[in-house]
Write a structure and sequence with these properties.
With about 300 residues, the protein is of the alpha+beta class. It has a domain at about 65-145: Roll (Nuclear Transport Factor 2, Chain: A), CATH 3.10.450. About 40% of the residues lie in helices and about 15% in strands. It contains 10 helices and 8 strands. It has a 4-stranded antiparallel beta sheet with strand order 1-2-3-4. Strand 6 (about 265-270) and strand 7 form a beta hairpin. Helix 1 packs parallel to helix 6 and helix 7 runs antiparallel to helix 8 (about 195-200). The longest helix is centred in the middle third of the chain and has 24 residues, at about 145-170. The two termini are about 25 Å apart.
Length: about 300
């Protein structure tokens, strides 16, 4: 049975195959000037490159409701059999399906499916192996912390998409394109998909005075612990010298998560007016705020693209 390391590998594989469609390979090409990847624009555009990318995304297999219901029912019966219980089995909800791997490796082993069972808070998570006929081969509980690592990766990657989009063009976020991208890239994350769609589609409310104060405090804390990579630290210092430590703060993207999910909020924030930069900001459930983008680049400065590594 694969444990959480394999589950995260499955997440990476599912997203990386989507990102690396022929029309827009993930990351700068050899010999090319580094550039930010603007996948939302590709999903919203009508030019030949955008249409080609959209065609490639449309070819990807998407988990459908009928399959999900059948697999959930099979896992529910397997859990009941394992527990040797005569009671009604708990409700099972599909949270992640590794269907993409079946496209990449058609002759490979079973599909990995992550589910929640029961209505407890937090619910019980299971890792199931499901073969091509929909039969459950094995079910095991996920170790503590594993669901958060999987969900945190997916939510962080969605924010990273928006960060690249804004640094690469600085025009208004093409939200319809971002929603289309979320539905293509993050389809395996069945349980997270509605949350990511809402975050991509919904324009954030203006930052409150409390938001502004706490995020500025986080920016000052971020500046006090420069990156160990000297080149990255110099780029960030150049950016912060330009925008200052009390810049205007504007939310571009907000993913508040779900109550009790232990991950908090993933946001993309604009610092400054002209010049300005963008950063990923995570607000933890305890209220602590982290700025996780390194280095920080002013809009128009493409040097950060070489550091922003795609899966």
């Amino acid at each position: 049975m694969r444990l959480i390391a394999a589950a995260c590998t499955a997440v990476l594989l599912a997203v990386s195959v989507r990102a690396a469609a022929p029309a827009a390979a993930a990351g700068p090409q050899p010999g090319a000037k580094p550039a930010y990847q603007r996948y939302c624009s590709l999903m919203a555009g009508s030019d030949p490159a955008s249409r080609h990318y959209q065609t490639e995304m449309a070819k990807l297999p998407l988990p459908n409701d009928e399959q999900n219901v059948a697999i959930a029912s099979a896992i529910r019966r397997a859990i009941q059999a394992q527990e040797h219980s005569a009671m009604l089995p708990p409700d099972v909800h599909i949270m992640f399906r590794d269907a993409q791997r079946l496209l990449v490796n058609p002759m490979g082993s079973d599909e990995l499916v992550l589910v929640t069972a029961g209505s407890g808070n937090p619910p019980h998570w299971y890792d199931a192996d499901v073969d091509r006929t929909g039969s459950v081969q094995n079910v095991e509980p996920l170790p503590p912390g594993a669901p958060e690592r999987v969900a945190g990766f997916m939510r962080g990657l969605a924010a990273f998409v928006v960060l690249n989009q804004m640094l690469g063009g600085d025009d208004p976020l093409p939200r319809a394109g971002c929603v289309a991208l979320v539905r293509a890239w993050f389809a395996p994350a069945v349980g997270l998909l509605p949350e990511l769609e809402r975050a991509a589609w919904t324009p954030p409310q203006p930052a409150t005075p409390h938001d502004i104060d706490t995020i500025r405090d986080a920016l000052r804390e971020y500046a006090r612990r420069p990156d160990r990579d000297r080149a990255k630290a110099e780029i960030t210092k150049h950016t912060l010298d330009a925008v200052g430590f009390d810049p205007p703060v504007e939310f571009v993207y907000r993913d508040p998560g779900e109550p009790g999910d232990a991950l908090g909020e993933f946001d993309v924030v604009r610092f400054g007016t002209r010049p300005h930069t963008y950063a990923i900001v995570q607000r933890h459930p305890n209220g602590h705020i982290d700025i996780s983008t390194s280095p920080l680049c002013l809009v128009g400065d493409t040097r950060c693209a070489r550091y922003y590594v795609w899966p």
